[in-house]
Amino acid sequence: MKVLAIESTCDETAAAVVESFGNGVRVLKNIVASSVEMHQKYGGIVPEVAAREQVKSIIPVVLEAMEGEEIDAVAVSYGPGLMGSLLIGVETAKALVWAWNKPLLRVNHMAAHILANWIGAEVPELPAVGLVVSGGHTDLILMESLTKWTWIGGTRDDAVGEAFDKTARLLGLPYPGGPEVDKAASKVTEEEWTKDKNQFKLPRPLIHDPRLDMSFSGIKAAVARMVEVQKELDEKTKNLIAREFSEAVVEVLVKKTLKAIEVYQPKSVILAGGVAANRKLRDTLGREVEQAGRKFFVPDLKYCGDNAAMVGAAAIMRPEKSELDLRPEPSLAVV
Ligand code: AMP
Ligand code: MG
Known about the structure:
single chain, alpha/beta, Nucleotidyltransferase, domain 5, 2 domains, 6-stranded mixed sheet, 12 strands, about 325 residues, binds adenosine monophosphate, about 45% helix, binds magnesium ion
């Protein structure tokens, strides 16, 4: 089966053509247009601006993806996300399936982040534990099959991506903050870190709590206090705070995932979502999961941020047929 997939949940407008391949999915086209630069001066996404940019980009992006392709179905993310942005993708998909007389497949955007791990030749063996880390979500999911998913833990307050973005803002780094904090943290040499780390201690909230609950708002508040007491927020200090922040967050995420392995005994562990692009998280979690004797999966960097290839992967691996009365669901849950 070959699918045209559309993604428009936030500030990326994306279209992809993907097809089934072995036990997973192969990507034939993957086009992404982003309005992220337009939001930089506001330090965050402005929904109205995002929606207007979606309108401008959707047809060019779909046309580029469809060049020379014949498809069997159209898939679209219908939530969670921003209502104005979601409407553009959903209404476009509905118009296309009506005109082409093809089936419409609806896709949960968060499930798509996870199912991005089915792109490629080697796919995860189930049961798996999925860790979804994005701007709006931090969840641990038990996947017993491609359709039987259970939420087993996650953040009680801020999402980890949100904590990265707020930390970046406190350090005077541009939006979106995650990659900037990652970059700043990587500038600290191991020598500097050994020498200075004791001056920059942040909490690891709930790390010793036996449950799979997490909390990231406390770390963010602690960064705010740490920034306040600095005599001078020079580049070296910023880098050291970014490094300690990354250490703290990754330690919590790794500890909770290892706890989930102990409790649920999965064959694989899957990392997904925008924050899965974080180098330290990919490396540390990958190493620890393999030491625990499980297979570790994380998408290629280009399939971590919002994209339509993952939407196509989800539509093929877990098809959900929809009628033309499909409506966006801005608060759609992961499971
Ligand atoms: P999503 O919500 O899945 O679109 O992911 C966006 C979130 O991922 C934002 O909060 C970004 O700051 C964050 N992010 C992207 N790249 C990185 C990175 N390398 N390290 C940490 N966070 C990141
Ligand atoms: Mg996303």
